[in-house]
Design goal:
Order of helices and strands of chain B: HHHEHEEHEHHEH
Distance between the termini of chain A: 45 Å
Shape of chain A: globular
Structural class of chain A: alpha+beta
Oligomer: heterodimer
Largest sheet of chain A: 7 strands, antiparallel
Number of helices of chain B: 8
CATH class of the largest domain in chain A: Alpha Beta
CATH architecture of the largest domain in chain A: 3-Layer(aba) Sandwich
Number of domains of chain A: 2
Largest sheet of chain B: 5 strands, mixed
Strand order of the largest sheet of chain B: 2-3-5-1-4
Order of helices and strands of chain A: HEEEEHEEEEHE
Largest interface: A-B, 34 and 26 residues
Shape of chain B: elongated
Number of helices of chain A: 3
Strand content of chain B: 15-25%
Helix content of chain B: 40-55%
Number of domains of chain B: 2
Strand order of the largest sheet of chain A: 2-3-4-8-7-6-5
Helix content of chain A: 25-40%
Structural class of chain B: alpha+beta
Number of strands of chain B: 5
CATH superfamily of the largest domain in chain A: Mog1/PsbP, alpha/beta/alpha sandwich
Strand content of chain A: 35-45%
Distance between the termini of chain B: 93 Å
Chain lengths: 162, 230
């Protein structure tokens, strides 16, 4: 009887470790976001990192922050616009849209001087419960303009796997 | 007689050097009719002729636009063509900007057209009132012309020494008149055209500043942080 109990305990313990291991593996392999990127963008190999770049240096990445204080998309859109305009960025466009999976997002596009060039900095905000998912893109004005329409279209395919 | 002429010259110079001589502009016609040295005749007639042109507009308008365009070369050509079409011309051209002079009545439509070339990042219009300065200069010019006319009338009755004095005074007076006329011409030219500067990139003074946000994540939402983390 004791022998059976010991066997059961060992089995449970090993199963838990196995499950944990599998969960970790699954976590590592899960792509954080789903995104059908425009053809001009190439993704960096690291699967946990969501970073794309074009041949001429337009960059795109996503990150998450706490939705704190908890607020709706319009609040964060206004906050981002106010802050970046105060910093000296010039708002050139605002597009609010719904992704294919029904998630609402807003893209703010700013122009700013960067060294000898003028650049575009684009911030797309999605509110997913307690988290804000930010898709940021930047590039030299002319180069960014060349891919802007494709990028905006692709953002509609964006889906965070939270 | 000599004393009369001398005292007249003294009075003439006192008047000439006074900063403002606001007198009626209608005496401009008399100025045109009176026989004067050739230099001042041309200056006066030019001033009188221009007076009518600037009757309605005595402001200098300057507009500055920053328009971001994908192709500055194409935009520059398009803007220049439009400016020519509406009667304007370019005064300065380089890789990142174009400066134009446009007829004032076409300014609004031109700004609207230029804005269509790209994204307007900055737009400003400033207007400088020139009316008072022009009126003051016209007044001074009128007085100086009157004095010149009087001085000329003394020639017939003066002796050699007095003639030399008169001539010296007239020379200085003509110089003054030329200065005033030149300034008037410049101001009228300024009022007759609107200056439009179109920049295709941010100007030097438009720099990005660091401003802290009460929302933590926004402090990291900027180009520098983006590039650093990428």
């Amino acid at each position: 009887m004791q022998y059976l109990n010991r066997l059961r305990r060992i089995f449970c313990c090993h199963s838990c470790i196995g499950l944990l291991f599998l969960a970790t593996l699954a976590g590592c392999s899960t792509v954080p976001y789903t995104f059908e990127s425009p053809s001009q963008f190439k993704r960096f190999d690291n699967k946990r990192e969501f970073k794309y770049i074009t041949a001429d240096g337009v960059m795109l990445k996503a990150r998450e922050v706490d939705n704190y204080p908890k607020a709706a998309l319009s609040f964060w859109k206004d906050a981002a616009q106010t802050h970046l305009e105060k910093v000296g960025y010039t708002l050139t466009d605002t597009v609010c849209f719904k992704t294919q999976k029904g998630l609402h997002g807003c893209t703010l596009t700013f122009a700013l001087p960067h060294g000898a060039e003028d650049w575009i900095f684009q911030e797309t905000i999605f509110v997913v419960n307690e988290r804000l998912v930010l898709v940021e893109a930047a590039g030299e004005f002319g180069k960014f303009k060349a891919i802007e329409a494709d990028l905006q279209k692709a953002l509609k395919t964006f889906s965070p796997n939270l | 007689m000599k004393w009369i002429i001398a005292s007249f010259i003294y009075v003439a110079f006192t008047v000439m050097c006074s900063p403002i001589m606001a007198q009626s502009v209608e005496t401009m016609d008399e100025v045109r009719k009176s026989p004067e040295p050739s230099k001042s005749t041309s200056a006066a007639s030019m001033a009188a002729g221009d007076a009518e042109a600037t009757k309605n507009r005595l402001t200098a308008v300057k507009s500055i636009m920053v328009v971001k365009v994908v192709n500055p070369d194409e935009a520059r050509v398009s803007i220049l063509n439009h400016a020519k079409k509406i009667g304007g011309y370019a005064t300065h051209l380089n890789d990142s900007s174009i400066t134009l002079k446009l007829p004032p009545e076409k300014l609004n439509s031109a700004i609207h057209t230029f804005a269509k070339e790209g994204i307007v990042i900055h737009k400003s219009i400033e207007s400088e009132d020139l009316e008072m300065e022009i009126a003051q200069l016209e007044g001074r010019l009128t007085s100086q012309m009157e004095i010149l006319k009087k001085l000329r009338s003394f020639f017939d009755d003066s002796d050699f020494a007095a003639t030399l004095d008169i001539e010296r005074s007239m020379g200085q007076l003509v110089n003054e008149i030329e200065n005033v006329t030149g300034r008037l011409r410049y101001l009228r030219e300024k009022a007759a055209w609107c200056v439009v500067e179109v920049h295709f990139r941010f100007r030097q003074r438009e720099q990005v500043l660091y401003v802290a946000s009460p929302f933590e994540w926004l402090n990291g939402a900027n180009l520098d942080a983006f590039l650093e983390e990428f």
